[in-house]
C-alpha cells in the first residue's frame, strides 16, 4: 500500500517536472540543430490565424498578445495555449499590406494596463495611419484613445511600436509611397517618432516641439531595443538594399536619395555634401525583412546577444550576432529557410523561449503556401536531448553559376510568381503580354522599373515595379530570355549586347 503510493508520488513528480520544462517530447513538431550537440524544439502554440502581424509577450499575465491584420486582438495564455479574443479595433482599413500593424504593451503593464496599436483607416478617398492607446481589464479592452493620426497610403505604412526603458514610445512610420516625406524632417512619415505614453511630445526630443527622432526611412517592418539600449530597425529596400539600422537621434538614414551601404559614386557624393548614416547590415538581393527582436538569454547560448530577424520573401529566421557594443553585426546564420513560409513577427518570453508568427495568408503567399493550419504561432525552445531528425542551418551556395530560371526566381518570382501568372490586380502576369513580346520595352521596364497605372490583359495595376539597374547586362539577358521562353511564351532570346545598347541609349522615362 505504502509502496504504491510512493510510486504514484514519484511518477507524479516526474510528469510535472517534464511539464514545467515546457512542451513534452511528443509535442515537438520539428527540431533545429544550432550547434555541436545543441538542438531546439519547435511546437505549435496556435493555428488558424490570419496574418498575425505582431506578437508581444507580457510577463505579468504570462501571455502573448496577437494583432491580426484585419483588426482583431487576441491573448494566448501560455499556461494552456488557449486563445481569447480581446478586441476588434474599430475602423481598420485592410487591403494588401494595410491594416492593423504594430503593437506595444506598456512596460509597467500591472499599473498601467495599456496596449498601443497602429493601423490604417480610410476617410473618403484618403488613407491615414493612426496610433491608439487601448485600456485592458479582465481580458477585454474597456477604453480606446486615439493619440496621433498621420498620412497613410495603400502601402508603405510601416510600422512598429516599442517602449524604451525610460517609458518613451517610438513609432516607426512608413513613407506612404511619398517621394518627399522621408527626407523632409518636418513631416511625420518615413520617420521614427518619439513620444510619451500619452502621445505627447517629450520636452527632450531632439527637435523641439516635434515628434521626429530620426528620418530617411522607407518602410520599417521590425524594431527592437538591445540590452544596452540601442534602438534597431529592419527596413524594406525597393529591389535592392534591405537594411538593419541602429537608430540614433537626428540621424538621417538616406532614403529616398540613397539606400544600403554608401558604396556607389552617386552615394558617396551625396554623403560628402550632407551626412547620412549607413545601415549596420544590408541585403541585395532583398529578403523582405520583418519582425526584429533582441535575444539576450543564456538558455540558448549560441544565440545570446543577437538580433533575431524573421523574413517574408526569404521565408527564414536569421540570427544576427552582435558585437559587445551591440552596434555591429559580425555574424549571420539562416534557419528554417522556406520551411514554414513567410514569417512576419517574433518575440521572446522571460525564460528565453522564442515565438514566431507565419504570414502565409497575406497578400503575397509564395509557392506551396499556405500550409494546413496557417497562419501559426510557433514556439522555439532549447531541448536537452538529441532528436532523431532535425533541420540544419541553411547555407547558400554562392559559387553556383546562376541560370535565367534561378535569377528569375531570385529577383522576380516574389511578385510575378514562379509560373509568371502574377496576382491579378496586384502584380501583372508575364504571359503573352505586349511588354514581354517587345524586347526594348521589356529591357527598359527591368532597367528602370515602372510607376503609375497600367492595364494588362484588361486588368488595372497601380503598384510600383522597382528598378533593376544594378543587375549586370548578362543577368538581365538571362532573365528576359527565360521569361520570353517560359510560362507558355515562345519568343526569341535577348543577348547581352542588346541589354548593353539599351542601357547606354536610354534613360528613365
Ligand atoms: C516587388 C515586386 C516586383 C518585383 C520584384 C518585380 N516586379 Fe515586375 N512589376 C511589378 C509591378 C507592381 C508591376 C506593374 C507596375 C505598374 O503598375 O506600373 C510590374 C510590371 C512589370 C512588367 C510590365 C508588365 C506589362 O505588361 O506592362 C514586366 C515586364 C515586369 N514587371 C517584369 C519583371 C521582371 C523580369 C522582374 C525581375 C527582374 C520583375 N518584374 C520584378 C512588381 C514587381
Descriptors for this entry?
alpha+beta, Neuraminidase, binds heme C, 33% strand, Cytochrome Bc1 Complex, Chain D, domain 2, 2 domains, disordered N terminus, 509 residues
Structure report:
By secondary structure, this protein is an alpha+beta fold. It folds into 2 domains: 24-383, Neuraminidase (6 Propeller); 404-505, Cytochrome c-like domain (Cytochrome Bc1 Complex, Chain D, domain 2), CATH 1.10.760.10. It has helices spanning 2-20, 265-273, 404-411, 413-416, 434-437, 439-448, 473-484, 496-505; strands at 28-35, 38-46, 52-58, 63-68, 72-77, 82-88, 100-105, 114-123, 126-137, 140-151, 160-163, 169-172, 191-195, 212-215, 220-225, 231-235, 242-247, 281-283, 289-295, 306-311, 317-322, 329-335, 343-348, 354-358, 377-383, 454-456, 459-461. A 5-stranded antiparallel sheet has the order 1-2-25-24-23, with no helix packed on it. A 4-stranded antiparallel sheet has the order 3-4-5-6, with no helix packed on it. A hairpin with a 2-residue loop joins β9 and β10. α3 (404-411) crosses α7 (473-484) and α7 packs across α8. The radius of gyration is 24 Å and the shape is globular. The termini are far apart. Mean pLDDT is 93; it is low at 1-22. The structure holds heme C. Heme C is lined by residues 411-412, 414-416, 427-428, 430, 433, 435-436, 442, 445-446, 450-452, 454, 456, 461-463, 465-466, 468, 479, 483.
Amino acid at each position: 500500500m505504502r509502496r504504491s503510493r510512493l510510486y504514484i508520488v514519484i511518477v507524479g513528480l516526474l510528469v510535472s517536472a517534464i511539464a514545467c520544462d515546457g512542451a513534452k517530447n511528443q509535442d515537438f513538431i520539428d527540431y533545429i540543430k544550432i550547434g555541436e550537440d545543441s538542438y531546439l524544439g519547435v511546437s505549435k502554440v496556435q493555428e488558424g490565424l490570419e496574418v498575425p502581424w505582431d506578437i508581444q509577450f507580457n510577463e505579468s499575465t504570462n501571455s502573448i498578445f496577437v494583432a491580426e491584420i484585419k483588426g482583431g486582438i487576441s491573448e494566448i495564455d501560455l499556461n494552456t495555449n488557449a486563445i481569447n479574443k480581446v478586441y476588434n479595433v474599430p475602423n481598420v482599413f485592410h487591403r494588401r499590406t494595410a491594416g492593423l500593424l504594430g503593437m506595444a504593451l506598456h512596460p509597467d503593464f500591472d499599473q498601467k494596463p495599456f496596449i498601443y496599436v497602429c493601423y490604417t483607416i480610410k476617410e473618403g478617398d484618403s488613407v491615414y495611419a493612426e496610433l491608439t492607446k487601448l485600456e485592458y481589464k479582465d481580458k477585454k479592452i474597456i477604453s480606446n484613445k486615439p493619440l496621433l493620426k498621420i498620412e497613410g497610403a495603400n502601402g508603405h505604412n510601416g510600422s512598429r511600436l516599442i517602449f524604451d526603458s525610460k517609458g518613451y514610445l517610438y513609432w516607426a512610420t512608413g513613407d506612404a509611397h511619398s517621394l518627399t516625406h522621408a527626407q523632409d524632417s518636418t513631416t511625420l512619415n518615413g520617420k521614427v517618432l518619439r513620444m510619451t505614453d500619452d502621445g505627447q511630445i517629450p520636452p527632450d526630443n531632439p527637435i523641439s516641439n516635434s515628434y521626429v527622432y530620426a528620418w530617411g526611412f522607407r518602410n520599417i517592418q521590425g524594431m527592437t531595443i538591445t540590452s544596452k539600449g540601442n534602438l534597431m530597425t529592419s527596413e524594406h529596400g525597393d529591389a535592392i538594399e534591405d537594411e538593419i539600422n541602429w537608430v540614433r537621434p537626428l540621424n538621417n538614414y538616406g532614403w529616398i536619395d540613397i539606400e544600403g551601404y554608401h558604396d556607389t559614386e552617386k552615394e558617396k557624393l551625396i554623403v560628402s555634401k550632407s551626412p547620412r548614416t549607413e545601415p549596420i547590415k544590408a541585403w541585395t538581393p532583398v529578403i523582405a525583412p520583418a519582425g526584429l527582436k533582441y535575444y539576450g538569454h543564456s538558455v540558448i547560448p549560441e544565440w545570446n546577444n543577437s538580433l533575431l530577424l524573421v523574413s517574408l520573401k526569404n521565408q527564414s529566421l536569421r540570427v544576427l550576432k552582435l558585437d559587445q557594443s551591440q552596434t555591429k553585426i559580425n555574424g549571420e546564420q539562416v534557419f528554417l529557410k522556406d520551411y514554414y513560409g513567410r514569417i512576419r513577427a517574433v518575440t521572446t518570453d522571460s525564460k528565453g523561449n522564442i515565438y514566431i508568427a507565419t504570414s502565409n495568408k497575406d497578400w503575397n503567399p509564395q509557392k506551396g503556401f499556405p500550409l494546413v493550419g496557417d497562419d501559426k504561432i510557433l514556439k522555439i525552445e532549447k531541448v536537452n536531448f538529441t532528436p532523431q531528425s532535425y533541420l540544419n542551418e541553411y547555407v547558400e551556395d554562392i559559387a553556383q553559376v546562376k541560370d535565367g530560371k534561378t535569377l528569375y526566381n531570385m529577383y522576380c518570382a516574389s511578385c510575378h510568381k514562379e509560373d509568371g501568372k502574377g496576382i491579378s490586380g496586384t502584380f501583372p502576369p508575364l504571359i503573352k503580354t505586349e511588354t514581354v513580346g517587345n524586347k526594348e520595352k521589356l529591357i527598359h521596364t527591368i532597367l528602370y522599373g515602372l510607376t503609375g497605372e497600367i492595364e494588362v490583359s484588361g486588368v488595372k495595376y497601380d503598384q510600383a515595379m522597382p528598378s533593376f539597374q544594378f543587375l549586370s547586362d548578362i543577368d538581365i539577358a538571362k532573365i528576359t530570355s527565360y521569361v520570353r521562353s517560359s510560362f507558355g511564351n515562345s519568343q526569341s532570346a535577348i543577348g547581352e549586347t542588346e541589354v548593353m545598347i539599351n542601357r547606354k541609349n536610354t534613360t528613365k522615362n
